[in-house]
Amino acid sequence: MQDDNTRHREKMQRIKAARDRMIATKTGEKGLIIVHTGKGKGKSSSAFGMVMRCIAHGMPCAVVQFIKGNWLTGEAELLRTRFAEECRLVISGEGFTWETQDRDRDIAAARRGWEAAKGFIRDPEIRFVLLDEINIALRYDYLDIDEVVAFLLEEKPPMTHVVLTGRNAKPELIEAADLVTEMTLVKHPFRDGIKAQPGVEF
Amino acid sequence: MQDDNTRHREKMQRIKAARDRMIATKTGEKGLIIVHTGKGKGKSSSAFGMVMRCIAHGMPCAVVQFIKGNWLTGEAELLRTRFAEECRLVISGEGFTWETQDRDRDIAAARRGWEAAKGFIRDPEIRFVLLDEINIALRYDYLDIDEVVAFLLEEKPPMTHVVLTGRNAKPELIEAADLVTEMTLVKHPFRDGIKAQPGVEF
């Protein structure tokens, strides 16, 4: 048992030394363009988790919800009631496109959201901006992908992080991003007749 | 333009009707076994996002951190300072195994965490339990996968949700789970020499 533990310690010392050498080469700091996409769960909730981290670190942040406007999601409610000082919140969307059934209104809402987003990103006080479900607005061409990517690359202050979420991220955005995660659905209880539930889904 | 909008509305009405029919078949409620795995980012932060949702909905919850014990992560700090009443927090782990370099101590820490986890899961007041990075403890056999799966399937109250995170989820756990998401790494700024940064990584 002691021998096992000694071997384990030696192996772990080697791993730690290799990791420390690797980490020592990572010295840069940079405001990142981050994309969460894919059909799996966790795209928005992990971005909200990052907002909570920023709040914990005293980093002012901002959220624009592009699509889920008429859902009173738990996160938006929490930001509004408990963290109004730490995090700005704009809800531009009025629901999914099959709920509003009005393309002109959806386009107008997306553009309002994008104007708010640009203001937050340009604001030197704000260090982290979440553009929740903006990929849906981009996918339907409610917003112009080239305009969004050009703004991020040219006008985003160097130390500001911007997170863009939603399925079907456009290739231009993936190309411009620093950090891209795809959430992949492995198993989902919908197929067993389980409905969306508070805490888990909203 | 008006014609475009009319066609759009008709198409969206059909999509909405199909969705409404699908959703109407999903009437069940059930406490879920949820797994976040894969090499990508967002496994822990989306689980913390769900904890925040539960807090927003007034659902009492609990978190056991199995591995990141000596990291003062933003989330743990926020739970401790702002949500101590809404969410119980136990930190059993003392860091990654290559940090502690002591297998016996890692095993003891994992077992302490699992005892706390069982208490939270059995507690009828608690509706949502996050076992953060438990997959690491399972992978190194610090905890017995059969014992963990049997407990979840046999002793978890029917309406309690349990979320288990970490890379390399064991097949037995995936088999037992209701909802499994794999976070897939598409692009990471580490390769460009960017270090872990507050808000984004911790």
Automatic annotation (TrEMBL), chains A, B:
GO terms for cellular component: cytoplasm. It is found in: Cytoplasm. Pathway: Cofactor biosynthesis; adenosylcobalamin biosynthesis; adenosylcobalamin from cob(II)yrinate a,c-diamide: step 2/7. InterPro entries: CblAdoTrfase_CobA, Co_AT_N_dom, P-loop_NTPase. It catalyses: 2 cob(II)alamin + reduced [electron-transfer flavoprotein] + 2 ATP = 2 adenosylcob(III)alamin + 2 triphosphate + oxidized [electron-transfer flavoprotein] + 3 H(+); 2 cob(II)yrinate a,c diamide + reduced [electron-transfer flavoprotein] + 2 ATP = 2 adenosylcob(III)yrinate a,c-diamide + 2 triphosphate + oxidized [electron-transfer flavoprotein] + 3 H(+). Required for both de novo synthesis of the corrin ring for the assimilation of exogenous corrinoids. Participates in the adenosylation of a variety of incomplete and complete corrinoids. This is Corrinoid adenosyltransferase. It comes from Jhaorihella thermophila. The lineage of its organism: Bacteria, Pseudomonadati, Pseudomonadota, Alphaproteobacteria, Rhodobacterales.
